[in-house]
Amino acid sequence: MDIRIIAATNKNLKKLVLDGKFREDLFYRLNVIKIQVPPLRKRRDDIPYLADHFLIKYARQNNKDLRGISNDTIEILKRYSFPGNVRELKNIIEKAVVLSNETKIDVIDLPKELLSLYRSSERRESNYNVDSSKLMNALQSITISNNDGSSKPWCSRLKAIAIEIIHEFLVNTNGRWFFPRDFAGFLNNHSKSACISNNTIVRYLKILKINHICEHNKKNANRSGYKLSKIFIKDN
User: Fold this and answer.
1) Torsion of CA 64, 68, 73, 75, to 10 degrees
2) How do residues 122-169 score in pLDDT, each as one tens digit?
3) Running DSSP on this structure, what letter comes out for residue 226?
């Protein structure tokens, strides 16, 4: 018989032998050529290459015309800790390939835990290039009764939400595309009122669009997004 045994572990076998939790004779039978492979989180530069490899593999298997992964998506993957190591990255890319209807994997194709990482990183970024005072004035003009006392036509559920919270969300987007569910989640996390549905948020975003506060992207009906109008973005 010609046999080669390859064994892998994420445990310290030497310590387990000393603790009496792993057989010493088996340890010395296995410990001939030892290869130390660092976890994916310690070799983040490999992530783009591995992601591309899995993309090509699963695109071919699923007959998908996928031509790459967006830069934002790669950056989020490189920030993630990958507790499931390379296998977790493989599963993420495979799922994205199967569910995507685009020609490129984008941030929205990532799992929820990575999307939350993306949004939290956006909130940490500087919003120096947003004209905050101009935006606040514009929001107040459409959500608060004007000088003659007449009410503005906006959703009653949102009246319980402070204008500063809506302002904070739009400033934090920093000119990036966002989706109604992102807006709804942010408002629900910061409001003591009842849960606000995506449909309510879409109606509200339409009001914002009418007033040129948000621009609407209708390129893909299933991924309809909004972003802050350029008139509120300062020139660097």
Assistant:
1) 150
2) 444 444 578 888 888 887 777 655 445 555 555 555 555 667 778 888
3) E
In the chain, helix, strand, coil percent, each to 5? 55, 5, 40
Q: What is the CATH number of domain 132-232?
A: 1.10.10.10
Residue positions counted in the chain: 236
Indicate whether this model's pTM tops 0.90. no
CATH classification number, 40-124, choose in 1.10.8.60, 3.65.10.10, 3.40.50.1820, 2.70.70.10: 1.10.8.60
Written as one letter, the residue type at 189 is: N
Instruction: State the Cα–Cα distance between residues 109 and 4, nearest whole angstrom.
Output: 40
Q: Which two tokens stand for residue 75?
A: 């950056």
Contact 127, 168 (CB under 8 A): no
Give residue-wise pLDDT tens across range 161-175.
667 778 888 887 777
